[in-house]
User: What shape does this take?
Amino acid sequence: MRVFLFQGIGFLFLLAVVSAFSGKLWREYNPSMNQRIKHGFPGWSGKSYGFAPHPLEEDDAVVQVYAARTRGSKQILAVHTWIATKAKSKSHYVTSEIFGWRLRRNGTALRQTVDVPDKGWYGNPPELLLDIRGEQAEQLIPEIEQAIADYPYKHEYTVWPGPNSNTFTSWIGKEVPELGLDLPATAIGKDWRPINEVVGLSASGTGLQTSLWGLLGMSVGWEEGLELNLLGLSYEIDLFDLAVELPGIGRIGTDPVVQ
Assistant: This one.
């Protein structure tokens, strides 16, 4: 029995390594992604990739969640995620995210600022994960702002396994389940939980999750499907959307954007 257990863990680890390097090739040669980069318009001071409506042209409220590959060697496996909101009739977006370096300088890792919501991250293009507009967004923004204010780990930061930037975005999804937020498998840290909260809501708030510090766990939910977490790496089968997610590669299948 022990031999089969070690063989299983070894197989999953090997799959993660293969997926990571395959993911790098996928991103470099994926036509749809290259097309997004090519056609990202240079407005908003050359920062916007065209996913977010210009705040001077959109009067309705907007809620969006983005992911982009991290910098350095970490980008092979992981993404950084953030949330952006624009209240009705406002002429700007507020982006909220977690930075480890900010904790050392300012005593809090949380950064909220007026910014272009769909800008790149260290030269990597953003991926739109969620896009809600109009009356629904207007109703959700106060709940999102409250969830951000209540985030309990803004004075902590650990790159792996968490809490990190993806733990923060995952927290918002749990606190505001109406978002239906399904973070990608590459959002390492989304499954991190403190030892006294091993069982709780999944990252989307639509299911259940059990996780030991984000190193070993499982999630079952309407948005996540069936997800296995091993050493912070996620393997997901989304039966409802007919898609799978693998470490490094991310999602293979239908578009995950919630609108």
User: Anything to note?
Assistant: The chain has one domain: 2-253. The helical segments are 2-29, 31-39, 43-46, 100-106, 135-150, 165-175.
